[in-house]
């Protein structure tokens, strides 16, 4: 099984504990990271991710929803202004982690990312 650190910590590891109690004979290898392993090539048998895979032959189930939010210091907002809902994030500096929605979509929280400042992802 493969998943991200955040999902492993908050969702997968606690679920594995209960699963192992119910089925002590079960052996499970958990690979944690943002690198997407290829299920079709048997790099993993199960993946828990934030986004739907691009391969249509895989069986996918929605496990829940995850909320994201934007944060900024008062000093930064005084310098660049508060983004207006529905007008995109052009001119905003976004710092994300590898695998964040900003890295996989042209939109973040429903806002266009076109014209935003490019910042290196935190790793």
What's the layout of helices and strands?
Blueprint: E1 2-3, H1 5-22, E2 31-32, E3 47-48, H2 74-80, H3 101-104, E4 107-108, E5 111-112
Parallel strand pairs: 1-2, 1-3
Antiparallel strand pairs: 4-5
The helix tally amounts to 3
Give the terminus-to-terminus CA distance: 22 Å
* Major sheet characteristics: 3 strands, parallel
What structural class results from the helix and strand content? alpha/beta
DSSP E strands, number:
5
Amount of helix: 10-25%
**Overall mean pLDDT:** 79
- What radius of gyration results from the CA coordinates? 18 Å
Report strand order across the widest sheet. Answer: 2-1-3
Order of helices and strands: EHEEHHEE
Low-confidence stretches: none
Strand content: 5-15%
Shape field: elongated
